[in-house]
Structure formats: structure tokens, C-alpha cells
Design goal:
The complex is a heterodimer of chains A (260) and B (325). Chain A is α/β, with parallel strands linked by helices. Chain B is built from 9 helices and 17 strands. Chain B is elongated and about 70 Å long. The chains are: A alpha/beta (260), B alpha/beta (325).
Chain lengths: 260, 325
């Protein structure tokens, strides 16, 4: 099976972010970066499918040069090769534009399955995978929690997570696009051997300007302002030492809320 | 002729889904503010009674599209139906709930008709003649104001719980039946069996007291402090999604949009920041206690009592206090 995984590099999830000078994004100068969580799960699933059915796992990333570090991590986990579409100036800003660029690169690629994360941990639009499927004319399934591929029949079964604890199996003809939900399995660690091998694996770099994509034809959505949410704190915040707050809490739960 | 706002009405098991009514409530407010007309759009098969229920809302019309092929959601056929309607009618705005079905559908529709899409919005502002939409990002730590620079219709999905169905305004709309020729649409996705995972396992919906744990617990080995607190209280242990994804607790203990919905007398959220997907599952608890190191954590917006502090100090101290009391 030829498996293709889209990886996005995002700022470290546990950082407290600062707004940039223009007020339209966050300061990235002092941040560390990592693979978006759902995308990492997508890569893990690709590697599992390759272990089961044989074939190849390729990584496709759109981002600045620094994204190479996340790609190397993916290669160390076991992916065979990668493509980095370089956008150092951050020209590609919307999921629609990202999907358009990825679709253009994929014109020259062969694949049975494209796996992406359901959503990213930075902008969290939850759009790119489905946009990509439609632009490529492929069927898709979203929020996937299990995959059973049948390469001989060119079919794939995907377990879709629904609301309120419900799940549903769907079947798609391949090639297809699946967007993967966090928690689908446990993500492997890169082995030392994997890390060594990753250094020699191919990362093909494509310059955005070399692609035949007219970004002006993509519906434009502009971020006017990024800001800290105004918090209307409803909670009564208990003050004092650990002993004091615990004392107050038990008292309030008994006498005020009457839940104990 | 005035501009139009369309709202997609999703339904299941003969009921209109709550997020669709929330979208309708927001649509009503926007239409009123801008002087636009508002239209509810409902797709399905043999859903006349649902359309009639919508007539009692403040809408200018209820567009009813019935076809056997629309009986169950399928991305190909739903996308085709909506593409045709939106292309022909050219509404200013197309609103829908940010539910799993529309996460599956909305981007496909946006690509199919090449229109802008802003997902998971929590509200809007009117800025001159323009609507600006507000959405959360970076795990709800930041908000962003976004504006469409694309042609209409603009497509917007609305976060569950961002508006209230209590805001719905009554009125009298007219059902307008619309027929589409969907015979040529090929359904590529085959629907197989559906099942409920929580069935027969831990049912937290009846629990009176719940101690819930989130990402803040850091690793499985630390869970015992939560279990000890639960034991001291006689409470059930529950979790937010990251804890379950890491397999530190089983999925039948997950609270939130993809897990169980609970309404205990006491919900103690330890190391849970309060992402909306979690909050929708527990916001109806009678009393909510939040323990979190981040004073800006959204969980404090809905909690009754908050403690800004390290759960590794607070939780054992609380357990000790309860045992001694």
C-alpha cells in the first residue's frame, strides 16, 4: 500500500502564547515546535498499515524550513520519505489554500490512502483533510478511530467517531482520504536506529513559487485580530494556603452547596 | 431584494438536533440586526413533521428538500444537494452547527462551490456592513476575529453551546418544498453498522458525585491521588479526553461531546482546562469545583468554586481533610 500522511508543525501545545506585534497571530520567535497531535496519530496509523500490508509511507508537509525538524521525527518513527513544500513567508494562510497546494503536489504522487489529522492544535479549523479530498475528487471519512484496509479489493473500512459515545463503520473505495482522531492508538517512540536512519532518508523540497497554484483564486478569509479571551469568571476563587483553601472548600460544599 | 441567511437544520431519530436550533437562534439575531431574511433548510426523507415544527419559529421560510437518497447523511449526496441550492439561491450566509456530521460535510461543500468557510465560531460582531466572526484557537487559549474576503455565500459552523436555544424567537414561517434531481449522484461511502461504546459499561449519568481528571495529572502513575479522593468522597472517577486517549482510564469514563453527558450534584474537575468538548458533557452539574494551575483556564468560567493551584498539593490535602472530617 502506498500511504501518504500530511503532517503539520505547530507551536508547543503547553506554552503560554504571546500575541505578535501586528496582533494577528502569536510570537513564534521563542517557541519550540512539534507535530500536531492528530497528525502524529495519522502517521502512526500509516506505519501500522504498512506493517500489515507492506508498501511505503510518505510524509507531506507545508511549512517553513523549520518544519524539517518535525519531518525528521516522522522519518525516525519509520516513514520512508518526505516532501516539504516550503512557505517561509507564510503566504498560505487558510485551510483552503493549504489543501490547494497539497493537491497540486499530489498530482505527481501515487497513493492508496491519504491520512491527515482531524484538526490541528493551533488554528483548529478541522477542514484541510476534507478540502483536500474534494479537490482531489476522492471519497473521505472524518474523525476516524480504526482502519481496516483491503488493498486487494481496493477498499478501506473506517470507524467514524460520532457524538455521545456512538461509532459507525463506513466503507470507501481506495484511493481515499481519512482524517484521524486523537487517541486512535498509542504513538510509538522513535528508536535510536530510527533516528540514525532518518538522517539518510530523502526529504524532497518544493518551493511554493515553483508550483502552479493560483492562491488568488482561493476564497480568502482574513484574521483581523488575535487576543486573549475575556474571561467572565463565574467561579468563587478560594484564597489562602493549601490547608486554608481545602478547609474553605469542604465547608462550602457542606453548608453552601449542600452536596456533601 | 434583501440578503438571505440560510441555516442548515440537522436531525436524527425524528428530532431536530439542538446545535441546529442554536444556529437558528444566532441566525435570527443576525438577520434581525442586518435586516436580512432568514430561512431554515432541512434535508431528509419523510420529514414533513419536522419542517412543520420549524414553521413556528421566527423564520421567513422553511425550505424542505425530500428525497430517498437524503434519508441518511451521506457526504456526496448532501454536498450535491447543498451545492445546488446555494449556487441557485446565493444566500449571504450559510450557518450550521459544528457537529461531527458537519465537520465531515462543510469543508467538502466549501471546496465544491469554492467559497470561504470559517469553522467552530463562538459568535460574531457587526462591523459596519460586515459581519466579523469570533473563533477560538490554540486549545481555547486565544480568540481570533476573522472576516471573509470571499464571495457569498459565506459558510460558517457554530460551536455547540455558543448560543442558547432559549434565545429562539417564535414566529410563523411557511414551508416551501424544493425538489432536486439527485439521481445521478453516486454514493461512494457505504454505511455499515453503528454501535454505542458506553453501553453496558460504566454509566456515569446516574452518579451523584464525580471526580474528574484531565491532562494536568501528567501520567498514569499519578492517578492514585484522584482515586483516593474519589474513594474518600464516595464518588465515581471520570476523565477528559486526553486522559482516555493516553489509555490511563477507559473510554467509558470519558465526559464530553464524544463521551458521556452527566449532571451530578458535585463535579470536581482536577487538572481539566475546560475545552468546550468537555464542558458540554458536565455543565449541568449542580456544583462544579475546579482545581487548575492556570488562572485563565476556561473551567473557571463555569465552576462554582475555584482553586488556582497545583492539584498534586490540593487533591491529597483535600482527601486527608475529608477522611479526617
Amino acid at each position: 500500500m502506498k500511504l501518504l500522511t500530511c503532517l503539520k508543525q505547530i507551536p508547543d501545545r503547553d506554552t503560554r502564547y504571546e500575541i505578535n506585534a501586528a496582533g494577528t497571530g502569536i510570537k513564534t520567535s521563542d517557541l519550540t515546535f512539534e507535530i500536531s497531535e492528530c497528525d502524529e496519530y495519522a502517521l502512526e496509523e500509516s506505519l501500522k498499515l504498512r506493517e500489515e500490508h507492506g508498501g511505503e509511507v510518505a510524509i507531506l508537509t507545508l511549512g517553513p524550513q523549520r518544519a524539517e525538524k518535525s519531518i525528521r521525527k516522522g522519518l525516525a518513527m519509520g516513514a520512508d520519505r518526505a516532501i516539504l513544500v516550503r512557505d517561509d513567508e507564510g503566504k498560505v494562510t487558510t485551510p483552503h489554500a493549504v489543501a490547494k497546494v497539497l493537491a497540486e503536489v499530489l498530482k505527481d504522487e501515487e497513493y492508496d490512502l491519504i491520512l491527515t489529522g482531524t484538526q490541528s492544535d493551533d488554528w483548529s479549523y478541522a477542514q484541510t483533510g476534507v478540502l483536500l479530498a474534494e479537490l482531489l475528487g476522492l471519497p473521505h471519512a472524518t474523525i476516524v478511530m480504526e482502519i481496516r484496509a483491503d488493498p486487494a479489493q481496493k477498499k478501506v473500512k473506517a470507524l467514524r467517531e460520532m457524538e455521545s459515545g456512538w461509532f459507525q463503520w463506513v466503507e470507501l473505495p481506495m484511493p481515499a482520504v481519512l482524517t484521524i482522531q486523537a487517541g486512535i492508538s498509542q504513538i510509538r517512540y522513535a528508536s535510536l536506529k530510527g533516528i540514525m536512519q532518518a538522517k539518510k532518508k530523502e526529504i524532497r523540497k518544493v518551493e511554493l513559487s515553483d508550483l502552479d497554484v493560483d492562491l488568488s483564486s482561493v476564497p480568502s478569509v482574513e484574521v483581523l485580530k488575535v487576543y486573549l479571551p475575556v474571561v467572565e469568571k463565574k467561579a468563587e476563587i478560594l484564597q489562602g494556603s493549601t490547608e486554608e483553601v481545602v478547609e474553605q472548600l469542604v465547608e462550602k460544599l457542606k453548608k453552601e452547596a449542600k452536596v456533601l | 431584494m434583501s440578503e438571505k441567511i440560510y441555516v442548515l437544520i440537522d436531525h436524527g431519530e425524528g428530532e431536530i438536533r439542538i446545535p441546529s436550533l442554536e444556529s437558528l437562534a444566532l441566525g435570527q439575531r443576525m438577520a434581525e440586526e442586518a435586516g436580512f431574511s432568514l430561512h431554515a433548510l432541512i434535508l431528509g426523507n419523510e420529514i414533513g413533521p419536522l419542517a412543520e415544527r420549524l414553521e413556528k419559529q421566527k423564520v421567513d421560510s422553511v425550505l424542505l428538500v425530500e428525497d430517498q437518497k437524503l434519508a441518511n447523511y451521506d457526504p456526496d449526496v448532501y454536498c450535491r444537494a447543498l451545492s445546488e441550492i446555494l449556487t441557485e439561491d446565493q444566500p449571504y450566509l450559510f450557518l450550521m452547527g459544528h457537529i461531527y456530521q458537519n465537520i465531515d460535510l462543510a469543508p467538502k461543500l466549501a471546496a465544491a462551490i469554492n467559497r470561504g468557510l470559517v469553522t467552530d465560531c463562538i459568535g460574531y460582531r457587526k462591523e459596519g456592513d460586515d459581519f466579523v466572526f469570533v473563533r477560538q484557537m490554540f486549545r481555547n487559549k486565544l480568540n481570533a476575529d476573522v472576516r471573509f474576503r470571499s464571495e457569498h455565500p459565506w459558510i460558517v459552523t457554530l460551536q455547540t453551546g455558543a448560543t442558547s436555544v432559549d434565545d429562539l424567537m417564535e414566529g410563523s414561517g411557511q414551508v416551501v418544498e424544493r425538489s432536486l434531481d439527485l439521481s445521478a449522484v453516486e454514493l461512494r461511502r457505504k454505511q455499515l453498522e453503528a454501535f454505542e461504546t458506553t453501553q453496558g459499561k460504566v454509566d456515569l449519568s446516574q452518579a451523584e458525585l464525580i471526580v474528574a481528571v484531565g491532562r494536568g495529572i501528567k501520567k498514569a502513575e499519578n492517578l492514585h491521588i484522584i482515586e483516593e479522593l474519589a474513594e474518600a468522597l464516595g464518588a465515581e472517577v471520570a476523565a477528559s479526553r486526553p486522559v482516555v486517549d493516553s489509555e490511563w482510564l477507559t473510554r467509558d469514563r470519558q465526559i464530553g461531546s464524544s463521551g458521556q453527558t452527566v449532571s451530578p450534584r458535585l463535579y470536581m474537575a482536577c487538572g481539566i482546562s475546560g475545552a468546550i468538548q468537555h464542558i458540554v458533557g458536565m455543565k449541568n452539574a449542580h456544583c462544579i469545583v475546579a482545581i487548575n494551575t492556570d488562572p485563565n483556564a476556561p473551567i473557571f468560567n463555569i465552576a462554582t468554586y475555584g482553586i488556582v493551584g497545583d492539584l498534586f498539593e490540593i487533591v491529597p490535602a483535600l482527601t486527608k481533610k475529608l477522611k479526617g472530617a
